[in-house]
Amino acid sequence: MTLRRRIGLGFTIAVDPAGGTSWTTLGNVVDGYKGPDSKADKVDVSILVDIFKPMAKGQIDSGEMTFEIAYDPEDSHSTLVESLLQQYDPVPTWLITYPHGGTPTRTFSAQLSGRSEEVSRGKLVTCTITLFIYGDPGYATS
Amino acid sequence: MADLAENLRTELVQIVGNDVPVEQGKISEETEADPRVFYGRVSEQAEVFVGGQGGLGEAHFTVEIFGTDVAEVQDMAGRIRALAGDNGLNGKHGYFGLDEVLGVYVTDQDDDYEYRGMDADEGWHAAALDVQIFT
Q: Which residue out of B49, B93, B104, B106 would a mutagenesis test of the A interface target, given it has the greatest number of A Cβ atoms within 10 Å?
């Protein structure tokens, strides 16, 4: 497949709080998302005679991702993410949809683990949301 | 919903009074009203969220006051620049003309500002304000 150059406009983030596939697209995501910053453990498998330490690749921490929403306590999408902060079970499922082409998607489970509100004179009121990925982040590998 | 510029005019007329001409765009050279207020839209833009939805709107207007009495010009500029609680525009939010706005901030224009409402000073005194409106 050839590379399709993409920009952020048109990306969507959707969630099913019940952990299924009944998606609610968050319409108030401001400026895209960042992450998840996945990283494999580095395991030292060296023995005494090794001059250079051989390292093995261990398990992969799927990492966290963050995005910013326009926040309004009277908005249903804002209150939805607020309620997910207090939800432990089930683990919500998330769907990222890329615009254009075959509109590829990525599905993963993640807990909403953080929220940070920002209120400033002359700026949009926002709330930064942090997710930590539960298991497979759903990267496209083929 | 009225145009934002019309709403600004409504607010300006409330501040300076009905007998002072408040006009958008260039005032014709024949106009000799003293004092008079010129205002015009400088810029207007709207944020777009990543999903394509509209975000915050922000507009800038320039407001110029002309008159032969310097004290009157400065007083009029001061009344427009005053805090909303003192019946000015600075810090106003909520109803603005016929509609609602999120916030209005008024500041003086820079020293090198070029006036739009008058070609030459010809003995007139002038004051210029930047009015920033969030919608």
A: B49
Residue B28 has pLDDT above 60, yes or no: no
Q: Which residues are CB-contacts of B120 (< 8 A; sequence separation ≥ 6)? A: none
Looking at the predicted complex, does its ipTM rise above 0.85? no
pTM over 0.90: no
What is the four-CA torsion angle of B30, B33, B35, B37, rounded to 10 degrees? Answer: -60
Tokens 């079970």, located at residue: A89
| Model confidence at A92: pLDDT above 60 | yes
Q: Which residues of B touch A119 (CB under 8 A)?
A: none
Residues of chain B numbered 42-81 and touching chain A (CB < 8 Å): 47-53, 55-56
pLDDT at B76: 96
Residue partners of A85: CB distance under 8 A and separation at least 6: A112, A113, A114, A115
